[in-house]
Queue: 2 jobs
Job 1
Amino acid sequence: MSQRVLEVTDLKKHFPIRGGLFGSTIGYVYAVDGVSFHIDKGETLSLVGESGCGKSTVGKAVLRLFPLTSGQVVLNGQRIDDMSAGALRPLRRQIQVVFQDPFSSLNPRMKVRDILAEPIRNFGLARSEAEVDEKVGSLMDKVRLPRDAVNRWPHEFSGGQRQRICIARALAAEPDVIVCDEAVSALDVSVKAQIVNLLQDLQSELGLAMLFISHDLAIVEHMTHRVAVMYLGQIVEVAERRALFGAPRHPYTEALLSAVPIPEPGAARERIVLQGDVPSPIKPPPGCRFHTRCPYSMERCRKEAPRLRDDGTGHLAACHLHDLPAAENPLLNKAPPTAFRAA
Ligand code: SF4
């Protein structure tokens, strides 16, 4: 039976906008507005969407880097959303993060050995300095860096090597969940692939649960188990990887997938170009938040927000099109949007 490691229910994070003479609250940025998902041991859930959709805020919220507006976050069966900083401290070991920028993520005044030893000591994971050394060496092996590189400074490494050190630092705490927040976005294409492969290997070796936050669907397609698509602070579709890439059930997902390059020479695909910009999260549109850009928008979409509903196979989508007869639903009457999905 699968073991639930992280469960998020109706998570909201509204940032107040201060203004006026006395700095009073004059509105809110609805960055995350009712997001629910779960991740099991050994599973990767990718959170995807355009820049500004709220996906990184979800990552920071589950890490409790700021107070939540509302909602529940359960880590290994324990609610952490309402915990004080002191009560949360020992539990921080269980959930670690790898950020996008490996250059600013590492303290330039600490050698690699000290960077990796710090969480081991802080969380009391070794009984002696000899054990700290052994654990640091083993972490270097895990991320495929030479053990003697522990005596070097972060600036002596390339971007890809620094990201390996960031991953090793996250693993040093022996976590159950790793949040990868655009962890490969800043890297060159070839290095990107190496880091993704490393993350996959580590995940299966250590049974980690991973929340992989990315705007890059081409990467996500090769390394995830399930995908959650976010638009303007809400999840609009969640499905197992093949189901989502093979037959998206939300027009926004369909448009995102149409922009993913096909690796086969000569393969063609109709690109769906969305009109307009993402609306402001300060004043999200009424009804379906995607209606201002959706090519299939109907009268109902402007008034009524669709609920995220399961099609009976674990594939969830929030779209009124699925209330139409199947023959009239444009999403159900199309060829798979990408080459992969024909496989
Ligand atoms: Fe488009 Fe309407 Fe579906 Fe929203 S509910 S995605 S506007 S068809």
Job 2
Amino acid sequence: MLKIANGIWKITFGTPEEFTPVSMRKSRIAQDGLNRMKDSDFPFSEDMVRFSASVRGITVTLPMQNDEDIYGFGEQLLSLNYVGRKRHVKVNSDPKIDTGESHAPVPFYISTAGYGLFVDTFRYATFYMGTNTEKGVSRTRREVNTSHTEFSESALYALKRLKEERKIIIEIPVAQGVDVYFFAGNVKEVVQRYNLFSGGGCLPPMWGLGVWYRVYGGSDENHVNMLAEEFRKEKIPVDVLGLEPGWHSHSYSCTYQWSCLFPNHEKMIKKLTAEGYHLNLWEHIFVYPAAPFYQDMYEYSGDYEVWNGLVPDFAVEEARQLFIKWHEEKLVGEGITGFKLDECDNSDFNPSNWSFPDSTQFPSGMDGEQMHNAIGVLYQEVIEESFRNRNIRTLSQVRSSGSLSASLPFVLYSDLYGHREFIRGIVTSSFSGMLWAPEVRDCVNGRDLLRRIQTIVFSPHTLLNCWRIPYAPWKQYDIEKNLKGEFMQDQEYYTDACRKLLELRMSLLPYLYSAFMDYHKTGLPPIRAMVLDYPDDPKVRDIDDQYFFGKDLLVCPLTLEDGTEREIYLPDGKWYDFFSTKVYEGGRRFQMKAGDEEIPVFVRDGALLPLAKPVLCVKEDIVFEMTVRSYGSGEAEFVLYEDDFNTYDYEIKESIAITVRRDEKGDIEYPENSLKYQFLKNTW
Ligand code: GAL
């Protein structure tokens, strides 16, 4: 056993494989952050962790307690707590069944027994989380003739809480050895340690936290310009415009070159940039024969094509550099500030069944199975490097991610669309260093539109993905009618209601930026499951539809199916309604009504909450006009961070801490001399 850092240990079994998340990592362990955490002891005795090898691969077993709950395994849309369940760590673009497969599965879990475990592999590992007991454990059992009283499937088959000696069994195919990493602490500390081990959380540029709007796939430059003008005219905040596949001269697979729909793209980029927009371009990794670097990439790609394109091997430096050079010089050079990395997940269960076989051989020596679980992260690293080389921060999108990805400035998304699942995705992704976008597309009706926008406003990514509709969903949420340009009679009502919600997002930007700075420094996710803040409250352990947004806000979104009422659980203490002055006593569950335009959001007692006057977009010379709300009494502080909001300089010289304080008497002390934040000293 080897101590890697404060509270992190590694055990090596057999001879690990050459290609693993740790052996290929580009990020460095955030040692400073780990050193700031309190010391912990190794959570097991070493002999409790067992290992065996066979022709099938290897198996690692660990003990499991009766009252253990289990979280993690990356982005999971279908459940939260995996005690008594099996998880299969395999990338899948279409995770409709709760097997553990997902856009971004990670062989990492957190146990409420005081530890976390990361298996350093790209293999399709399987974790049996207390589903099995070993032979002999039950040999003294003699109960007979006990009649069945409950007939639900879960009652008949559940082992979840049975007092038996359950095991955690981890199977890793193919490999004949593996490194296993242990993280000590409660759920929160384990997540922090894992994220710091991964390099610390990413810090997006301030504009990335604003509103994103992906335009219709069939757009030409006139349509993009028209939408851009309309948003400014109608005072709808938008920071990022996303272009879909049509910007490529060929897509599926891609050329990474502008199509005839954008003959004046350079002019368009300049004009939109001057108006405060950022441009994001859709692409995928598969390189079409007409792409400028196809010939050079040929020898550095796998031995199968996807959609007539090459699959670059980003484990080979030459392949990385071909991609980086083109993106950096051509596209970032033209003023593009982000990309949407599509289809780097796998599609075994999709009717069209694209992507490469697991048996694919790549020049580096990786096989298709390993590449499927690695490609999302390798691709993100390549794209980030094309920005980093120019000292420009990006926030971009990606459809697959995996191990040790916390420091990568990318948000995950999906073609699935269940609102309830999307809310759960916000919660589950927070355990494994990932950000999730519960994106809004077309909607069933007006209520659905408002409910979904409320969720994106309080999520890592305020993204409207309108790639299938030419006009904004607040003008027409129905796809067919939107395509025909038929607008709703009450479009004005919905435009106003959506504008109000998007303005709310803009007022939260500096607050959220602080949460991301904490993520970067301490590994605490900016938007996170309740169990991270209340690891000792058993009532939050299964909550997957409420979550913390930044330091002090607890968000409880509603879906169309909820109607205008939902159950809320508030932990012990006093809580304040974000939208009124109403006070709630915590430590209880209750029903709460919320009209279509309302989302229940609660503020922690004692909080200082800095809110900005909403702007239409974050320009480089932005100065936020801040108001501070004070909740409850006693000494308190809130730290805002001032830097250029755009470059990587914060890594070299610390961002300036702008601290708002409340003293014992309740008086607020506002910081002077900030260049980016101006405080209006009216109390709320
Ligand atoms: C999908 C992606 C959508 C959209 C579409 C364009 O794969 O998930 O968001 O970008 O491609 O073809």
